[in-house]
Design a protein that fits this description.
The structure holds 2 protein chains of 2 kinds. Chain A is α+β, with helices and mostly antiparallel strands. Chain A is built from 16 helices and 16 strands. Chain A has a 6-stranded antiparallel sheet with strand order 3-2-1-14-15-16. A 3-stranded antiparallel sheet of chain A has the order 6-7-8. Chain B has one domain: NADH:ubiquinone oxidoreductase-like, 20kDa subunit (Rossmann fold), CATH 3.40.50. In chain B, strands 2-1-3-5-8 form a 5-stranded parallel sheet, sandwiched between helices. Chain B has a two-stranded antiparallel ribbon with strand order 4-7. Chain B is elongated, with a radius of gyration of 18 Å. The chains are: A alpha+beta, B alpha/beta. Strand 9 of chain A pairs parallel with strand 6 of chain B. The complex binds iron/sulfur cluster. Iron/sulfur cluster sits at the interface of chains B and A.
Amino acid sequence: MSETRYVIDPVTRVEGHGKVTLLVNDAGEVTQARLHIVEFRGFEKFIQGRPYWELPLVVQRLCGICPVSHHLAAAKAIDQIAGVTQLSAPALKLRRLMHFAQVLQSHALHFFHLASPDLLFGFQSPEQQRNIVAVIRQHPDIAIQGVRIRKFGQQIIEAISGKRIHGIAALPGSMNAALTLEKIQPFLQGIDTIIASCERTVALVQTLTEQDADFHLDFGYIESPFMGLVGPQGELELYDGNLRVIDSQGQILVDQFPCARYFDLIQEQVKPWSYMKFPFLIQRGTENGWYRVGPLARVNACTRIDTPKAEQARQAFRQHMGAPAHSPLLFHWTRMIEALHCAEAIKLLLEDPDIQSNDLQRSGVKQHTGIGVIEAPRGTLFHHYEIDDEDRVTRANLIVSTTSNNQAMNDTIRKVATQHLDGHSLTPELLNLVEVAIRAYDPCLSCATHAVGTMPLQLQLQTESGALLQQLQRNSDGTITA
Amino acid sequence: MSARKLKVATCSLAGCFGCHMSFLDMDEQIVDLIELIEFDRSPLTDIKTIGACDIGLIEGGLCNDENVHVLQQFRQHCRILVAVGACAINGGVPALRNRFTVQECLEESYLHGVGVVEAQIPADPELPSLLPQVIPIQNVVKVDFFLPGCPPPATAFVEIIQAVRDNREPRLDYPMRRFD
Ligand code: SF4
């Protein structure tokens, strides 16, 4: 049977660059969906020969959306290289504060700036409406709330690292500087408003989801295992902890798995049509071993959240949506539960006098390997480095969050296309829905290729051999032409 | 102030999106700014192809042939083209790969990587071909303004836009000029 290919290029309102091909057989069934990651940076090679202490500075420039997560994952790795197994309490708290601020700002960015137009105006609203400008015009209160949550996170990052984006904070076994009371004061004054805004947003997503529950739950529904870091009691953990994997029924498959042995848990498959690899659980193999990471995975996998409001929100989520919940659009709800958790955790840290202490430095005996694992906004992030006697990097391996969701995104797109492909013809509606599906995962394709770019969109119909049959393109005036 | 809004398109080539994020770091000022401008093709909108624009903001240098194509389209459609950030101006961190061949970089990631199975170098008609070196955008098109920094501060974006609106040279005073 011959197959027909549809291409969506580029996909917008996600952070990165990619396109989608749908392979369709003669019967009009979607046999495969491929999200092509078309960019390649070559980080693993070009970092070789650089001094290891540069890593947190260079590596954060892979992604300007979650630079702090890369900065800190690399920092955790270089702590180990510096032989430091335990940071001082003040240094650890400053890092955690910075990371909560990162997750908060990134979740706010995704929800308000990128995803909220779909949720507020509907998935089939006119293109001119589907952007943050329209949200500012029509729902100014919601938009401003989002802008302020993001701003708050960015300002904390700036206070700790000197800049909102690509600052300098972490050093091997240390942090650059503590916070002063003067710097902390305005945040202490503002944090209750931010917590309240996050609570309202959780309620808003819940309402938007439940208003149209059938669509939300059915849209692109797939089942999979989930992975995330947890603390010693199984609690949600974003900075440290060990790995937990639950299966699609919610049973714990792997628990308290040490991050330093991640290569015994997962491997990555290469496919010829994408620069993004396909990680899988070794015990389940390439076909069945794929899993999901990110807010939905973490909220599903953890036993509890150790801040009260977020924990209440988590319990409500489980009650309404099941445990584990699988529908991709539920990423949005869980993303805001996590934002609420970050805001609550930020408050506790701001009130902790340790973040003003200058007891920051620890040292140890140099090691040749460092593996830093962290929960970035979009999921588990692995940084692995080896160095030589001259302190130069000899080997690097990164598995970024979006990469772990690679197979899941492809399967979700295939499901959506199966649900909504109208015979053999490409429709603008399908084009929208495929993007909505991708956006639920908040993919950072920049991270995934170890750089971010834009994703405009073009939908192409091709034969298996690659001949172009039909093309749909969205123009700048909003019209769609062949 | 002219009644017509300035059309602004933005894109990220071989960049990290940090410059776009810095643009959003203007925070609440965006509410006033959207009275001055209208976004055309940008990662913030669903517009996929660029129309006639007043300002094109380019983040990132050039690492593959698709980047070159997008850049040329921006040049054709934008009255004023701005190289935003260290990557667009100098290649930035992605240009660190210029010490190696493309083949060496691909082999390291896809053949010699930790825990890689079915090792092979991706090759598919959907994948654009990589340029041998990462190059700055002014190597390929004429650039009207350069905003240095990694990333440039939000205030610099606002200043560029206001300068174009007022038909004057941008005044990038020292705090707006970053060299990091
Ligand atoms: S200049 Fe800096 S912030 Fe801008 S794209 Fe390059 S690395 Fe990112």
